[in-house]
Design brief:
With 174 residues, chain A is mostly helical. The two termini of chain A are 22 Å apart. Classes of the chains: A mainly alpha (174), B mainly alpha (66). At the A-B interface, helix 2 of A face helix 2, helix 3 and helix 4 of B.
Chain lengths: 174, 66
């Protein structure tokens, strides 16, 4: 059943926060959830665009049309995000099942994953500072190091707690 | 209902061990055993192979309507 996973599938897994490899049932679940998300998003988008057009063309209220488009899109993304997260959790795609003897090893692994995530997040956090502030990177980092450190620590703690909650200890004798 | 659980017990395997051997999640084995997931032919073959039996013995219900 172990098939070679393409980079795209790895990316899909990674971007959805799924740590381990998925089997055929789990991929089918992920596909079903993805299809539902697409349909929901498409319907919401159509509605948002129609209302924005109505505001702009019929009422000539361009300011409200713009804001409705902006906030409507954000809301649609939020709805789809909540739906996909909830569905994936319900389908058990996030579960990390272990037996009690593996706890120590898995804790080490999740610390490592949380550290990698924190490193990525820190780069993404620092990037706008670098792009929108004048001066060399060294000076920018030096000026903002406390803020960056606090955000990174908080992100690490959040990421670690989230991963830790996924661990389910099962009995191996079933 | 299929006979996966019966054959697994006969082989003294846990759900976790069987799942590991055929490369699927433990929950998938659990769902198959409880008749809540219909596995693909490839997975059925892998199960039969790992449990040392054939597809008929594992999945054929003898013509009974479920």
């Amino acid at each position: 059943m172990k098939s070679k996973e393409s980079l795209w599938l790895k990316y899909l897994r990674w971007s959805n926060g799924i740590t381990g490899p998925l089997d055929e049932r789990q991929w089918a679940e992920l596909e079903r959830i993805g299809n539902n998300c697409f349909e929901v998003f498409l319907s919401l988008e159509a509605l948002i665009i129609l209302v924005s057009l109505w505001l702009a063309i019929k009422l000539e209220n361009y300011r409200n049309a713009y804001w409705f488009l902006f906030w409507g899109n954000l809301l649609a993304l939020l709805v789809v995000g909540i739906y996909s997260g909830h569905s994936m959790k319900h389908a058990g795609l996030f579960d990390i099942e272990i037996i009690s003897e593996e706890r120590r090893k898995v804790m080490g692994e999740i610390i490592l994953i949380a550290l990698i995530r924190t490193a990525f997040f820190s780069i993404i956090y620092v990037l706008p500072l670098f792009l929108f502030t004048n001066g060399p990177l060294k000076e920018i980092l030096f000026a903002h190091w406390q803020e960056i450190l606090i955000v990174a620590v908080l992100f690490f703690l959040g990421s670690f707690t989230e991963l830790r909650k996924r661990i389910k200890i099962i009995k191996d004798d079933d | 209902m299929n006979q996966v659980k019966k054959y697994r017990k006969r082989q003294h395997l846990s759900q976790r061990e069987l799942a590991k051997r055929i490369g699927v999640a433990r929950q998938t084995i659990n769902l198959i055993e409880n008749g809540k997931y219909n596995p693909s032919l490839n997975l059925c073959l892998a199960l039969a192979h790992e449990l040392g039996t054939d597809l008929n013995s594992l999945f054929w219900d003898g013509g009974e309507k479920q």
